[in-house]
Specification:
alpha/beta; single chain; 8 helices; globular; disordered C terminus
Length: 246
């Protein structure tokens, strides 16, 4: 199955539908997203290959997904560390942070040192709603991720990438090509620029909503919240997009 993509504008509208006609709360959606991320990391970075997971957290919902993922990873036996330089005053994010503190998960202000000690990085800085230029302190963080040899898993989008057109032409992120990507709910058009391992996590999408936005529901196996999209499917998807543009 070639998975169809969803634009940033439609992704925002879909989230609103999930929280209205779908009757989901933002807490539920964030919990499901973070659980999906944690499962992808467990596949990509088994504990036997290193347990130190650095989670780079942004100020919005993408960051919230990262906080949830870190909690699950802690319960799986990993040793997550959180880099969260711009903490939100929103009650939800404060509760997510408190849950991690209750588990003695450390928060760090020194990203470079934490990166040197990490076995794997979760990029949960910016998601599908990102636009414009990268602002401090995240520019230096994304530049460090560009240059690191530590494997990175991006949540929904590699931070700094445009959802439709992919990496920026210059500046932080122009050379950022993480090893892994987990798309939440559905892939975004940027996947045509992505060459690493790609997972989709969205095992909560009602068929009626998927039909409204012309999305595909992957064949999830067993109790998995994620499914890997083979590279050949990505190539077919890009070909379909090019044909549709003619």
């Amino acid at each position: 199955m070639v998975l169809r993509t969803i634009s940033a504008e439609n992704a925002g509208a879909l989230d609103k539908d999930l929280m209205s006609v779908g009757a989901f709360s933002i807490d539920q959606l964030m919990e499901l997203a973070g659980l999906s991320v944690s499962q992808a990391v467990h596949i990509l970075q088994p504990p036997t290959r290193g347990k130190k997971i650095l989670v780079a957290v942004g100020p919005g919902n993408n960051g919230g997904d990262g906080l949830v993922a870190a909690r699950h990873l802690k319960h799986y036996g990993y040793q997550p560390t959180i880099f969260y330089p711009k903490r939100s005053k929103n009650e939800l994010y404060q509760r997510l942070s408190k849950q991690l503190e209750n588990l003695n998960v450390p928060f760090t202000e020194d990203f470079e040192v934490a990166l040197e000690n990490a076995d794997h990085v979760v990029d949960a800085i910016f998601g599908f709603s990102f636009s414009g230029e990268v602002r401090d302190p995240f520019g230096a963080v994304i530049t460090a991720l560009e240059n690191t040899s530590v494997p990175v898993t991006a949540v929904d989008a590699p931070s700094s990438w445009n959802i439709d057109s992919g990496p920026p032409e210059s500046g932080p992120g122009s050379k950022f090509h993480p090893a892994n990507l987990i798309s939440l709910t559905a892939p975004k058009p940027l996947v045509k620029h992505f060459t690493g391992r790609h997972f989709v996590g969205g095992r909560f999408l009602p068929p009626s909503v998927a039909e409204k936005y012309s999305l595909d529901i992957p064949d999830y196996r067993g109790v998995d919240q994620i499914v890997e999209v083979p590279a050949e499917q990505e190539a077919k998807s890009e070909k379909v997009l090019k044909l549709a543009e003619r």
